C-alpha cells in the first residue's frame, strides 16, 4: 500500500472486553494490505491482542486464544484473594502461547499498561517478564484478582489508561488507533436499571478520559456497531472480529483512494 511504504507505523489497541476481538479483524485487514506496525501498545484485552501480534501469531491463533482460554473456570474461583477468579492461575495457559515469557522474545516492540492499585498510578511494561504484566493489564475488577508484580498489586490497564498512546507517540511516522470502547447516543429505555446506568456512566468516563488521545492518531478505527456487543458477551467473539475486519477494510481502502488522487 503506497501510503505506508517506507513509513514506520505504530498501533494502539484499546481495552473493551469481547469487543476487543475487533482488533484482530483490524490486524487481518492490515495483513491483507501488507501494513505492518513496528511498535504496538495495548490496554486490557488490547494488550493481549497486541502481545499475540507482536509475538507473530496468526489471525487463526489469535481467535483460538480467546475462544479456547476459559474466562471463567470454576476451579479458578478464589476465596483467598480479592476478586472472583484467581488471575494468576492463567499463567500456565499463557505459557503455551508465550513460552519464553519475555518481551525480548517478541518480533515487534510491545508496550503494555497496567494499573498499580496501591500507588494509584498507571505503569508501562516493555522489558523483562511479560505474562504477569499481560494478565494484570486484563485483570478487570472485581471479576479477576489483582496480579502481584514486584510486591505490588496490579489491575486492569483500562482503569487509568484505556488507550495507551503515550509509548508510541513521537516514535513513528504514522499512528493507527483501534478503539473498541465506543460511545453512541442511547434511548431512555437503555438506561432503565441501576446496572444499565452504571455501565453507561463508566463507559462515558472511560471515553472522556481517552477521547483527546484517540483523535491524535493519523487513522482511527472505531466501529460504532460494536456497541451492540456486551463487554463480557463471549458469544460475540466472531461477530466483533467480523465487524472490526469489515470496518477497517473500508477505512484502509478509503484512505488509499484519497492518497491516490
Counted up, domains total: 1
Number of helices: 7
Gross morphology is globular
CATH superfamily: Cytosolic phospholipase A2 catalytic domain
Number of strands: 8
Please give the oligomerization state of what you see. single chain
Task: Characterize the largest beta sheet: strand count, sense, and whether it forms a barrel.
Answer: 8 strands, mixed
GO biological process, one term: lipid catabolic process
Pfam family, one: Patatin
GO molecular function: hydrolase activity
InterPro entries: Acyl_Trfase/lysoPLipase (IPR016035), NTE (IPR050301), PNPLA_dom (IPR002641)
Protein described:
By secondary structure, the protein is α/β, with parallel strands linked by helices. It has a single domain (9-260), classed as Cytosolic phospholipase A2 catalytic domain. Helix content is 34%, strand content 15%. It is built from seven helices and eight strands; from the N terminus they run E-H-E-H-H-H-E-E-H-E-E-E-H-E-H. Strands 1, 2, 3, 4, 5, 6, 7 and 8 form an eight-stranded mixed sheet that branches. Strand 7 (174-178), helix 6 (194-214) and strand 8 form a beta-alpha-beta unit. Helix 1 packs parallel to helix 2 and helix 1 packs antiparallel against helix 3. The longest helix is centred in the C-terminal third of the chain and has 24 residues, at 237-260. It is globular. It starts with 8 loop residues before the first strand and ends with a helix. 41% of the residues are buried. Residues 11-169 form the PNPLA domain. A motif (DGA/G) lies at residues 156-158.
Amino acid at each position: 500500500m503506497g501510503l505506508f511504504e517506507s513509513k514506520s507505523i505504530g498501533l494502539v489497541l484499546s481495552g473493551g472486553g469481547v469487543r476487543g476481538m475487533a482488533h484482530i479483524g483490524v490486524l487481518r485487514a492490515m495483513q491483507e494490505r501488507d501494513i505492518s506496525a513496528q511498535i504496538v501498545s495495548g490496554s486490557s484485552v488490547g494488550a493481549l491482542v497486541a502481545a499475540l501480534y507482536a509475538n507473530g501469531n496468526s489471525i487463526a491463533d489469535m481467535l483460538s486464544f480467546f475462544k479456547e482460554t476459559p474466562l471463567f473456570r470454576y476451579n479458578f474461583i478464589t476465596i483467598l484473594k480479592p476478586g472472583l477468579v484467581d488471575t494468576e492461575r492463567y499463567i500456565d495457559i499463557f505459557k503455551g502461547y508465550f513460552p519464553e515469557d519475555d518481551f525480548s522474545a517478541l518480533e515487534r516492540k510491545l508496550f503494555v499498561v497496567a494499573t498499580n492499585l496501591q500507588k494509584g498510578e498507571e505503569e508501562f511494561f516493555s522489558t523483562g517478564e511479560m505474562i504477569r504484566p499481560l494478565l494484570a493489564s486484563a485483570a478487570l475488577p472485581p471479576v479477576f484478582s489483582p496480579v502481584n508484580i514486584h510486591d505490588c498489586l496490579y489491575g486492569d490497564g483500562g482503569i487509568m489508561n484505556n488507550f495507551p498512546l503515550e509509548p508510541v507517540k513521537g516514535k513513528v511516522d504514522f499512528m493507527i488507533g483501534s478503539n473498541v470502547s465506543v460511545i453512541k447516543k442511547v434511548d431512555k429505555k437503555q438506561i432503565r436499571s441501576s446496572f444499565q446506568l452504571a455501565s453507561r456512566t463508566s463507559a462515558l468516563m472511560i471515553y472522556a478520559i481517552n477521547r483527546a488521545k484517540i483523535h491524535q492518531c493519523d487513522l482511527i478505527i472505531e466501529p460504532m456497531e460494536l456497541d451492540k456487543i456486551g463487554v463480557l458477551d463471549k458469544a460475540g467473539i466472531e461477530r466483533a472480529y467480523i465487524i472490526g475486519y469489515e470496518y477497517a477494510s473500508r477505512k484502509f481502502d478509503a484512505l488509499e483512494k484519497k492518497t491516490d488522487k
